[in-house]
Structure formats: C-alpha cells, structure tokens
Design brief:
CATH superfamily of the largest domain: Chloramphenicol acetyltransferase-like domain
Helix content: 25-40%
Structural class: alpha+beta
CATH topology of the largest domain: Chloramphenicol Acetyltransferase
Low-confidence stretches: 79-104
Distance between the termini: 61 Å
Order of helices and strands: EEEEEEEEHHHHEHHEEEEEEHEEEEH
Number of domains: 3
Number of strands: 19
Strand content: 15-25%
Shape: globular
Length: 380
C-alpha cells in the first residue's frame, strides 16, 4: 500500500484539492499525475509514488487540504476487489433529471394550487414536479429559481477555487497588517540606455531583458539601506534574511495573479536574473510552475505600470512578508535638472510596508537607495 500525501510545505494560504486525475480502480504508474491541488498562487500536480491501482480516495474534490495530509492510497490489489461502496462515495452524483411537467390543465388542480400559479403567472407545465403531484413547494422553488436567474444583460461568473484563495489571502493581509505606502519618482534614463545596448545580446542568450530585472537588482542594492525590508513578521519576532528571494507578481489574465520567486537574487548578475525571470514567467502563463517556484519569498515586486496605472496604493503585502514594491507606468515627463527643464522617462515607485515591522525612516531610506541604483546604473 502506497500513501498519496500532500506536500509538507505550503506558501500563502491553504490548499484545495481541485481535481482527481484518476478514479478508484484505475491503474497508475510511478510518477503519473494522480491529483491536482490549488492555492491562490499555483496549481500543483501530485504524482504517484509507486505502481499499482488507486484503491482509496480520502479527500474529495473541493475540500481543503492541510500540509502533509493523506489524500488517498495506491494498492497492488486488482481493480475488481476495490470496495464498491468506497467508489460510490467519491463519485459525483448525477445531475438530477427534472420530472416531467404536469400535463393537467390548471382547472383540474386544487384551488390553492391554482391561485398560487395565477399569482405568479405560471401554467402548471411551467413548474418541475418533485413528487407524485404539483405542490406548493414546487411552485415556491420555481419562484426562487427564477429570482436567482441572471437578468437580461448580466453575466454571472462563479468564483473558481484560485479566485477564492486570492480573495481570502488579500482580505487576511489587510486585516492583519497596517499598510502604509510611500511614493518616490524614478528617472529611467540610465536603465533605458543600458537595456537598449544589451537586449539583443540577452535575447541570443535566451533572456528577455525587460525593466523588471533592473528592479530586482536595484531592490537587492536597497536592502543594504534597510535590511528589515527583507523580512517576515511573526507574532513574537521579525525574521530578517541574508538571502533575498524576490517574488514577481505575474498576471494570468482573467485567472488572477501568481508570484514566482527568484531565489538568492543577491548572488545573480543582471543576465542571470533576466534568464530566471523569462523562464518563470513563461512557465507561469503556461500553468507549469511547481509549488517550489512560489515558495520562500522574502520580498515582492508588483510591476503594475505595464497595465497602465501610474500609482497603486496600497499594494497588498504578501503575508508574512513586510513590504512590497510597486512600479508605475513609464512615461515621458518634464523635469528640472539643474536650471534646465528636460524631458525624461519617469515612473512613480512605491513601497508599501507593514507598519508593525517597518517605520517611515526605513521605508524612505530603502526607496532612496532603490531610486539611486536605477538612476546611476553603469553606462553601457
């Protein structure tokens, strides 16, 4: 007997068992995908740890899954010996088949039923029947069903499990941490010139050189001015880390947002950051991230300006981290340099902090160093 177990490590919020990819009695081979878990960040396939037959499902689809939970079991017992009662318990019930509509005319019904039908503008044939004959409960059920039906011009989209997890995570963060946002302005002239000089060479090396790798590198530099920004808050302590593991908010269109992590960014060159970012972004949008790709973040970046916003505040902190950087839309603006007015590529940058862990002095020191790193980037 081989246990099917959920991963011990889990980032952010709880997991939900999204889908069983096999049903009881199905043959499985080692490393076959057997179930899919989903959090607000990533969908994770659980692979079979051995050959055999899926003999037990202990957690049904849609149920919460704790780290390390036993999801089911694989046995080498042949499929026919599987307990049929157990199989029935995990199969989804068939959709109910509406009973045939009443064929009798309203005039043949009891007076109370006729009156209810008339009050609601129904004919007997309009109302599905749950028992041997049309009842008051059937009429009230049809009234309620029609009341819940979308009005003309309204599209109702049920929340999927990822959207529910995102909502829970965002609401919990706002309830937990006092969010405060500081706003600076950054001149992108230096990094724009550097990018123009190197993006073709980076592309030949398999890396898409956007501005985001510069934000990652500048964040690493800024951590020296305020190390607590690279930390996590707990009720009895704040943990400040040597390794700078930076999560990059990646939009998945209508499906939501995911935050893959660039690990030990302080050890990486700009090219290495760009390569990792290209790989993570491509796999995120293809739905191929592993759970380990979104774990262990100590700081996050939201490049919300790519969708057009100048400033977003507060950007919700990814608990238990204590800060998140926001970068707004890049646009040319008139600025004063010395005694001259010049047109420069400018963007607003924000640092939203958990005020339990970080104060204004640290926030502004971090942002000042971040902006300095961008504006003094080495020439190409």
């Amino acid at each position: 007997m081989v246990d099917i177990v959920a991963p011990e490590e889990q980032e952010g919020t709880r997991s939900v068992l999204k889908t069983w990819l096999k049903k009881p009695g199905d043959a499985v081979r080692v490393n076959d995908p057997i179930a899919e878990l989903e959090t607000d960040k990533v969908a994770v396939e659980i692979a079979a740890a051995g050959d055999g037959v899926l003999s037990e499902i202990l957690i049904e689809e849609g149920a919460d899954v704790e780290p390390g939970a036993l999801l089911g079991r694989i046995s080498d017992v042949p499929a026919p010996s599987i307990d049929h009662a157990m199989q029935a318990s995990v199969q989804k019930p068939a959709a109910p088949i509406p009973a045939p509509a009443i064929s009798q005319a309203n005039a043949q019904l009891p007076p109370g039923i006729r009156r209810l039908l008339e009050e609601h503008g129904f004919k007997a044939s309009d109302v599905p029947v749950s028992g041997a004959r049309l009842s008051r409960e059937d009429i009230f059920a049809e009234v309620e069903r029609r009341a819940k039906a979308p009005a003309a011009g309204v599209m109702r989209v049920p929340h999927d499990s990822m959207r529910k997890r995102i909502a829970e995570h965002m609401a919990r963060s706002m309830q937990t941490a006092p969010h405060v946002t500081a706003v600076f302005e950054a001149d992108f002239t230096a990094i724009a010139a550097n990018r123009a000089a190197h993006k073709d060479a980076f592309a030949k090396d398999g890396a898409n050189l956007t501005f985001t790798p510069y934000f990652v590198a500048a964040s690493v530099a800024a951590m020296k001015a305020a190390p607590a920004v690279n930390g996590r808050w707990f009720d009895d302590r704040i943990e400040i880390y040597d390794d700078i593991n930076i999560g990059i908010g990646t939009a998945l269109g209508e499906k939501g947002l995911i935050v893959p992590v660039i690990r030990r960014a302080q050890t990486l060159s700009l090219l290495e950051i760009a390569k990792q970012l290209t790989d993570l972004t491509e796999r995120a949008r293809a739905g191929k991230l592993a759970q380990s790709d979104v774990q262990g973040g100590t700081f996050s970046i939201s490049n919300h300006g790519v969708s057009g916003s100048l400033i977003a505040a507060p950007i919700i902190i990814n608990q238990p981290q204590v800060a998140i950087l926001g970068v707004g839309k890049l646009e040319k603006r008139a600025v004063v340099r010395g005694d001259a007015i010049q047109v420069r590529p400018m963007a607003y940058v924000t640092l939203t902090i958990d005020h339990r862990a970080i104060d204004a002095f640290q926030t502004n020191a971090w942002l000042a160093r971040f902006v300095e790193a961008l504006e003094t980037w080495p020439a190409a």
